[in-house]
Specification:
The chain is an alpha/beta fold. Helix content is 47%, strand content 16%. Helix 9 (250-261) links the parallel strand 8 and strand 9 (268-273). The termini are far apart. It binds nicotinamide-adenine-dinucleotide, L-histidinol and zinc ion (ZN). Zinc ion (ZN) binds next to loops. It comes from Microcystis viridis FACHB-1342.
Amino acid sequence: MVRILKLSQLSDAERAKLQKRAELDIDNALKVAQTVIETIRERGDAGVVDYVRRFDYEGATVENIKVNEAEFERAFQLIEPEVKTAIEQAFRNIQEVHRRQMPEEIQLAEIEAGVFAGEKISPIPNVGLYVPRGRGAFPSMMLMLAIPAMVAGVERVVVCTPPDKQGNVEPVSLVAARMAGVREIYKLGGVQAIAALALGTKNIKRVDKITGPCSVYGAAAKRLLFGTVDVGLPAGPSESIVLADESTDARLAALDLLIEAEHGADSAALLVTHCEQVAIAASEYAQEYLQKLPDWRREFCEAGLAAYGGIILTDSLQQSLDFVNEYAPEHLELLVSNPFAILGKIKNAGEILLGNHTPSSMATYAIGVNAVLPTGSFARSYSAVSVYDFLKRSTLAYVTPEGFEKLKETTKTLAEYEGFPAHKLAIQHREILL
Ligand SMILES: NC(=O)c1ccc[n+]([C@@H]2O[C@H](COP(=O)([O-])OP(=O)(O)OC[C@H]3O[C@@H](n4cnc5c(N)ncnc54)[C@H](O)[C@@H]3O)[C@@H](O)[C@H]2O)c1
Ligand SMILES: N[C@H](CO)Cc1c[nH]c[nH+]1
Ligand SMILES: [Zn+2]
């Protein structure tokens, strides 16, 4: 049985543990990350290679950690036709969604007569994408990161993704990268990837921003390198809430509970409902569906559901909604009778999926919405990856002679008040010079 927790009977400590998810366990990874970062800072490429050898591929060398043309070609030969077709449909939908996000390059509006203000949008020049590969292959994540970066017009897109024990990058991820136009890929995972991208080495030029989901090791490295590089949204261990009411088909609730649970023992998958019958039935069905998974995925589910997940039984739909908003899940499925009726009440969620035909696996692979999402309650302030992660805004202003007349006294007065005489002088002299 998947555990059922009665919300009103949880202690403050139990609620806090649920709320914190696996973020509780980052301390050990921080120690490891600190050592790896310091070594790479001192020894550059040689340090990077040492850690690839230690954690991923014993045969790594400075020369073979960059994916070469022959490896891309081999990946195209290896990909199964039906997987290629699936990647192509996913590619089209992700590209369409992200193209629609692109703002106008220049926006300028007349704020008062002769005073124009707005912004100019430009791509971030150098971006590093982290595509995980520990407890699964993630070509979908390659698409979710590389497509918005390319649509945004990033000049240099670099990818790091871990190699397997034989030194190979997962081939479908290479095909996905090439379809998106990525050419520079390093076989690096975890801390060594984030450190190489953030600090730069002789062979790997540093980037301005790193984004992409990762396990606790990459997350620890990002935390330590915050300040050296823009580390993007916190996208850690997968998590989800399936919200159910009395109308919910408990089989669907159970199936969807397992979607994010199977990522790892650190995943947090919750079913939240005020309906006890649905809770009990979903718990039983989940037990049944768990038997259909391979042992290692089932064990992930069991461990994660026991530590950070399970079924939360509330007193009312309103209490369920309050819990959802407090928790701020990465994925939220509204498996209720009328999802649109409660949509307005959802305040914090990385992704909101409406109704029985929109499971989070479909959003992850095929719909086109971005599946790189904030975790660990950061959906309170962060958003899904989008073209905006790869763009920056310069404010833009243009003042005509008429506008200058309108603003000059205000500018001088405030410059005087704040004690900045050169600020004031620039206005006073213009009155004479122009
Ligand atoms: N939030 C999102 O949008 C999102 C999307 C996809 C995946 N995810 C999450 O991303 C995570 C991906 O994790 P993963 O493990 O599959 O891949 P990963 O690529 O993040 O981790 C593998 C790397 O971890 C490093 N590593 C492993 N053991 C280590 C150790 N003992 N010490 C130091 N380094 C070590 C290795 O270098 C390896 O390359 C999962 O938690 C998954 O749930 C989140
Ligand atoms: N559900 C993950 C984001 O939490 C993304 C993913 C990719 N592949 C499988 N799942
Ligand atoms: Zn997933």
